[in-house]
Amino acid sequence: MKKILIVLMLTITSIDVFAELMQVTESKDLTLYVYPTTIRAVGAKVKMWDLTDYKRGMESHGASGYYWSSKAQIEYDCEEEQSRILTFSHFSEPKGQGRVLYSHEEPSKWKPIMPESMGQNLWEIACDKRQ
Known about the structure:
Elements: H1 2-19, E1 22-26, E2 30-34, E3 40-42, E4 45-59, E5 66-77, E6 82-91, E7 100-104, E8 111-112, H2 118-130
Antiparallel strand pairs: 1-2, 2-4, 3-4, 4-5, 5-6, 6-7, 6-8
């Protein structure tokens, strides 16, 4: 009976974790999601977490092994149409599960949003929620 309860609790917990994911786009190489509940705005700037699931393992920089997903917190400047990565992590399994293979917590430089890109899709989601 205890084993059944443990499995049931793990299943419920997993459902809750993935319930807040919203799929943004999918390609032959990856599926991109955002966590809409993580959107935080201060003035023209918005922070939001995203998750990328890869269809094949990607080589992890700075660590051995391949990663199957990554999570990133990105800051968007809605007025200047630019973004920068605040922090990101690579995971050994899809959906940000498994071991953290690599993590980076130093903000990148601001980069312009490229038209008709996944970055523009993310920028639009973040900046639309700001208003």
